[in-house]
Amino acid sequence: MTSTLALNLDRIRAAHERVRAYIHRTPVLTSSRFDDASGAKLFFKCENFQKIGAFKARGATNAVFVLDDASAKRGAVTHSSGNHGTALARAAKLRKIPAHIVMPKNSAKVKVRAVEGYGANIVFSEATQEAREAACASLMAQTGATLIHPFENEDVMAGQGTAAIELLEDADVDLVMCPIGGGGLLCGTAVAAKSMQPKIKVIAVEPENADDAAKSFRAGKRIVTKKNFTIADGLRTNVGERNFPIIQRYVDDVVTVSEDAIVSAMRRIWETMKIVIEPSAAVPYAVILEDKIDIVGKRVGIILTGGNVDLDALPWLRHESEISCA
Amino acid sequence: MTSTLALNLDRIRAAHERVRAYIHRTPVLTSSRFDDASGAKLFFKCENFQKIGAFKARGATNAVFVLDDASAKRGAVTHSSGNHGTALARAAKLRKIPAHIVMPKNSAKVKVRAVEGYGANIVFSEATQEAREAACASLMAQTGATLIHPFENEDVMAGQGTAAIELLEDADVDLVMCPIGGGGLLCGTAVAAKSMQPKIKVIAVEPENADDAAKSFRAGKRIVTKKNFTIADGLRTNVGERNFPIIQRYVDDVVTVSEDAIVSAMRRIWETMKIVIEPSAAVPYAVILEDKIDIVGKRVGIILTGGNVDLDALPWLRHESEISCA
Questions:
Q1: CA pair distance A81, A32, nearest whole angstrom
Q2: Amino acid B325: pLDDT
Q3: Do domains B2-54+154-316 and B57-147 have the same CATH topology?
Q4: In what order do the strands lie in the sheet with B28-29?
Q5: Residue B311 to residue A270, Cβ atoms within 8 A
Q6: Which residues does B94 contact at the CB level (< 8 Å), separation at least 6?
Q7: Nearest C-alpha of chain A: how many angstroms from B10?
Q8: With contacts defined as CB-CB under 8 Å, which chain A residues touch B274?
Q9: Cβ B275–A270 below 8 Å, yes or no?
């Protein structure tokens, strides 16, 4: 099993070779307006333009294509109501193997349709973690399919880390900022960046309302928290058990941002850069708006993680519609 | 006066050399999803990523930098409530000359702030065409500034045509689609495309609710129409007197699209391509949604004209908020 090997740069580079033909090399965009406002030089790695609209295409594709033929034939299984499910369904279709995606009954229809569009078998479960894991276990027992966890899987982490390789090939940076949910992207990013350029600082960012990673990082041990609501729906997860030690070793700091700053950051990126990003992707730029770290004069890489957002429910319109309809 | 010379490819190439240092070479994006849906290969020239958020930066910059030093010192003047005013203010600032922008009293505050941000002198007038032209004439008499009309100016047209040069350098296309309002972009695009590749078809597109160019093209003479409301605010103008003969000579057809198709096209481009475009920019893709021309098997260039949109008033949310607040 490759998934027991440690995460390192060789493994991320191998992942890059493996997935290159199936993903976009996304552009790195800059904004003179944002540079003027921040006093830094910002490089945005646009994974919102990635296949399926998020970086998750990288990790899922690597994890599916690294399977040996016998395992692959039995298929892949995961539980996800979000981008990882779609990404795994797509990767399985590309390899022409079965995919089983466990989704909560209350999943958004648009997400169900996206997974269906790639021909995956959808199994609906109750929304609790226990119910989802039980459904996965049952599918694995029935089919022999391999579990591809959204983030507690080194092949997934290695795949996510390929975005950082491309970012560092395209931009010479002092600092990389990356959101943290379960920690798959952060682990891949931190290992890639620190291994390629040990002097690069890696800063993880999460919402104040989902600050388990910040608390864990300060405490030196993994702390699971109950979460308050955060608009950054991709970051509501607790950091993974296999991810936390990697974060302790490779990440320089974990900082948190307010919900208001996330919404402002999202809106400013849409208005100024003319690109659509999802709330979770706005979290690193929120750090700059809240002036949480010193970036003046620095070259800062920011991973814009995805662009899958409900255009009928934009966060800056919620408050207004509450007022106008009250 | 250079502005009396005919519009031709040499002039557009000269404009390109002149403005190159002051504008972005915008990317040409593709979408495998849109290609699959349309049966064509689509190339989107992303002028929403241009300086000031629209192609207008090209024409205004060319028209300002082509002025001789004595004229330039006296400044530039125009009337515009939209992107051309911002573009002219920016170009004048770059050349360090005065700019006077006549804006209707009811202009959106965000547009006023954008012009102010470039240090231009704003003169407010009544919203009628007569009042705006009188205010321009008065400013010209007072200051000796040169009028730089938004579209009835060959240097502006030549500047706008530089987007087509870049598009054709980056993509080999059979057909180019371009929105038509006053006709500045269309004239530059058509002359550039037909001169570079005579076999390329050039199709102009306008809203059914502002179809003066289509009517004029069929009648063989310029017809000024009263407009119904169109969401495509950049295309509410009648085609210019100096633009129409160029359109007759270089454009293959003018087609119209419904308001519903414009809104759908705008939304699909946001959702699928993850980019922010303004309603006017969605008009060519609306042609594809309404199946108005045969593009199957063809390579189609589309100019996405701009991305300046009010994020508090998205067209697909209007109807819904009317219902929910009724």
A1: 37
A2: 37
A3: yes
A4: B28-29, B41-46, B299-304, B175-179, B201-207, B253-257
A5: yes
A6: B22, B61, B64
A7: 31
A8: 48-49, 53, 275-277, 307
A9: no
Q: Which residue of A has its CA nearest to B326?
A: A325
Q: pLDDT (tens digit, 0 to 9) for every residue of chain A, 326 residues total?
A: 444 569 999 999 999 999 999 999 999 999 999 999 999 999 999 999 999 999 999 999 999 999 999 999 999 999 987 899 999 999 999 999 999 999 999 888 888 999 999 999 999 999 888 999 999 999 999 999 999 999 999 999 999 999 999 999 999 999 999 999 999 999 999 999 999 999 999 999 999 999 999 999 999 999 999 878 999 999 999 999 999 999 999 999 999 999 999 999 999 999 999 999 999 999 999 999 999 999 999 999 999 999 999 999 899 987 544 444 33
Residues B294-303 have pLDDT tens digits of 999 999 999 9
Exactly one of B41, B51, B56, B194 is catalytic; name it. B56
Cα dist. B147→B21, B78, B152, B187, B208 in Å? 24, 6, 10, 19, 31
Catalytic residue among A38, A80, A81, A125: A81
For A274, the closest of B307, B316, B320 (CB atoms) is: B307
DSSP-derived letter for residue A239 is P
User: Six-digit token pair at A301?
Assistant: 């890489």
- Span between the terminal Cα atoms of chain A, in Å: 58
Question: What is the pLDDT, as a whole number, of residue B5?
Answer: 67
Of B27, B274, B307, Cβ closest to residue A307: B274
Q: What CATH number is given for B2-54+154-316 in this structure?
A: 3.40.50.1100
Where exactly are the structural domains of chain A? 2-55+154-317, 57-147
Out of 3.30.870.10, 3.40.50.1100, 3.30.750.24, 3.30.70.250, the CATH code matching A2-55+154-317 is 3.40.50.1100
Contacts of B53 in chain A (CB under 8 A): 274
Is A292 a catalytic site residue?
Answer: no
Region of residue A297 (left: phi > 0; alpha: psi -120 to 50; beta: else): left
Read off the DSSP letter of residue A293: S
Side chain identity at B81, as an amino acid letter?
S
Fold that domain B57-147 belongs to in CATH: Rossmann fold (3.40.50)
Q: Cα(B249)–Cα(B191) distance, rounded to whole angstroms?
A: 9
Residue B8 backbone phi and psi in degrees, to 5:
-150, 175
* Chain B residue numbers touching A316 (CB-CB < 8 A): 311-312
Rounded CA-CA distance B302/B28 in Å is: 9
Instruction: Choose the closest CB to B311 out of A267, A321, A325.
Output: A267
Interface test with B, best of A274, A277, A312, A319 (most B CBs within 10 A): A274
User: What pLDDT, on the 0 to 100 scale, is given for residue B321?
Assistant: 43
Q: Do B140 and B121 form a contact (C-beta atoms < 8 A)?
A: no
Q: Is B81 a catalytic residue?
A: yes
Cβ–Cβ contacts within 10 Å for residue A96, how many?
9
Element spanning B283, H or E = helix B283-289
Copy the structure tokens of residue B126.
């009544």
d(CA A308, nearest CA chain B) in Å: 7
Rounded Cα distance between A293 and A246, Å, is: 22
Dihedral sign from CA coordinates of B112, A282, A20, A164: positive
Is pLDDT above 60 for B2? Answer: no
Tell me which residue in B48, B271, B314 faces A274 most closely, judged by beta carbons.
Answer: B48
